[in-house]
Design a protein that fits this description.
Length: 430
């Protein structure tokens, strides 16, 4: 390695190379996904994506391993053995019919950072680890950030038996199907003393950066999320033979609750609260039969922890009253719950100073979406860099960030990691 290269000379990410990697991962999708990408957690396609990551990191001479949770890590050694690691990365799974950038942008930025360090023969005192997390999306099992929750000690073997997908497959069985033993996930836990800092690059999934023509977002806090399944039980009966006043229509009650959720989130007591009903199941599902059972899958998000939980409780209470009035019953089941986090000021300041040094405009903003950073911040001080999302759209085939915008973010990421390496290096002893 070149000792002179340790100075914080600008490292310029290659936009073309970044786009090629985005396209490579986008091609790994279930048949019939149309223009979108479908690569669900703990499926062979997710493992194929991790194999692409492994191949490139191995070619760069990094030490690569996959832990018991399915996370893939690659390490470039530092010049001072025994120092804790700096890290960066994101996830490679997707929601159904997704875009090509959510999570993947952070992984390709990590891959490009590794290549920039190798091609420029950069020395750094701390080891740098590049991470592709498993199962960040909660679309399949209702719980987000499974891979990072496991390394943070927030999810253990017993929890993996309780989460099921729409086909009834448990998270534990899904892991077994791709070669992981759920009983061994405790071995994947990160130890705080092994990590110095972590910085994740991600698309914003909102429109603040684009609308203000700002290339970089420095994230100060991440919203929490409470996910609830509301099961409404009514009485299935014939649509023609049952008068309106004698019905116990579970779907009609569900429709009122959907609008109730929107009303609660929009009132003046809930500035910053977001409630969505993202999935509805009605049975028996016949056009000539009144719904006897309806399930609503609700996501309550907030940057205020108390308000998040109080809002979820208020929704359940008021939904219960709706059901009572309509002659149906309600059962609420919490699927997942994650608290909001405030990210460390020191890392925010480092990324902001890096932007200033590079002449890149930035703004500090919160994240409304959950991220792996939210979980690993329990173990290692973590920062986040946002790059713009066109029209603020995400979890959609039209999700898009330009290659130049991603390259700017990657340049900031790589330079920030080197800045942290200098800040955190041990003081020489006299």
């Amino acid at each position: 390695m070149n000792p002179a290269a340790t100075a914080l000379a600008p490292l310029t990410a290659d936009a073309t190379r970044l786009q090629e990697r985005i396209d490579t991962f986008a091609a790994l999708s279930e048949p019939g996904a149309g223009d979108g990408v479908t690569r669900l957690a703990y499926t062979p396609l997710e493992r194929q994506a991790h194999a692409v990551f492994t191949h490139e990191m191995t070619d760069l001479g990094l030490t690569v391993w996959t832990d018991a949770a399915g996370n893939t890590l690659a390490e470039r050694p530092g010049t001072h053995p025994g120092l804790p690691a700096l890290g960066t990365g994101s996830h490679l799974d997707s929601v159904p019919n997704a875009g090509a950038y959510d999570g993947i942008a952070g992984v390709v930025a990590a891959m490009e950072t590794a290549r920039l360090l190798a091609e420029n023969d950069i020395e750094h005192t701390h080891p740098i680890r590049f991470v592709a997390f498993a199962a960040e999306e909660g679309a399949r099992f209702g719980q987000a950030c499974t891979g990072s929750r496991i390394v943070a000690g927030l999810t253990g073997p017993a929890d993996l038996q309780t989460k099921r997908d729409a086909d009834g497959i448990t998270l534990a069985d899904a892991m077994r199907s791709v070669g992981f033993d759920p009983a061994e996930v405790t071995t994947a836990r990160w130890q705080p003393e092994e990590w110095a800092a972590f910085v994740e690059l991600h698309i914003e999934q909102g429109s603040v950066l684009e609308s203000t023509n700002t290339p970089i977002g420095v994230v100060d806090q991440i919203s929490g999320s409470t996910r609830i399944m509301l099961q409404i039980t009514g009485r299935a009966s014939h649509t023609g033979g049952t008068p309106m006043h004698l019905r116990a229509d579970a779907l009609a009650a569900g429709a009122e609750i959907v609008l109730l959720a929107e009303t609660i989130a929009g009132d003046t007591r809930h500035r910053g609260t977001r409630i969505s009903v993202g999935k509805i199941e009605a049975s028996p599902g016949s056009i000539t039969t009144i719904s006897g059972r309806t399930r609503l899958y609700v996501d309550v998000r907030d940057i205020d922890s108390d308000r998040q939980r109080l809002t979820a409780a208020e929704l359940v209470d008021r939904a219960t009253a709706v059901c009572r009035r309509r002659g149906v019953t309600l059962t609420a089941t919490t699927l997942a719950d994650a608290s909001p986090v405030i990210l460390p000021r020191r890392l925010r300041d480092t990324v902001a100073a890096t932007c200033t040094g590079l002449g890149v405009d930035y703004r500090v903003l919160p994240s409304g979406a959950s991220h792996d950073s939210q979980m690993i911040n329990h173990i290692v001080p973590t920062g986040m860099i946002f790059v713009p999302s066109r029209d603020g759209i995400s979890h959609s085939p039209v999700e898009w960030t330009s290659a130049d915008e991603l390259a700017t973010g990657t340049t900031v990421l790589a330079t920030s990691l080197l800045a942290l390496d200098q800040q955190l290096r041990p003081t020489p002893q006299p």
